[in-house]
Amino acid sequence: MSDVCALCGRKAVNLTEHHLVPKQQGGTNGLTAMLCSACHRQIHALFTNEELADFYHSLERLADHPQMEKYLKWVKKQDPEKKIITRTSNRKKR
Length: 94
What we know:
This protein is of the alpha+beta class. It has four helices and two strands. It has a single domain (about 1-90), classed as DNA Binding (I), subunit A (Orthogonal Bundle), CATH 1.10.30. Helix 1 (about 35-45) runs antiparallel to helix 4. The protein starts with 14 loop residues before the first strand and ends in a 19-residue tail after the last helix.
């Protein structure tokens, strides 16, 4: 098992399992990716579970979203040990 985030490529001490299709949307036994906690939090701050299930269910699609692309460019420069604060997007519907 690699200790590298599948999205940003940073070496991470704590990787978390991200269900590409959220469990609440039927992805319990689906594909997963190991992500650093910062990337995982950013995904869930930007997208609803419905958006993740309907369209953003691959690492490629996630990385291609303009806000995620900007975030990834920034986070790749950050120390993996740095505590990264995530804010919920204004576009995310609650």
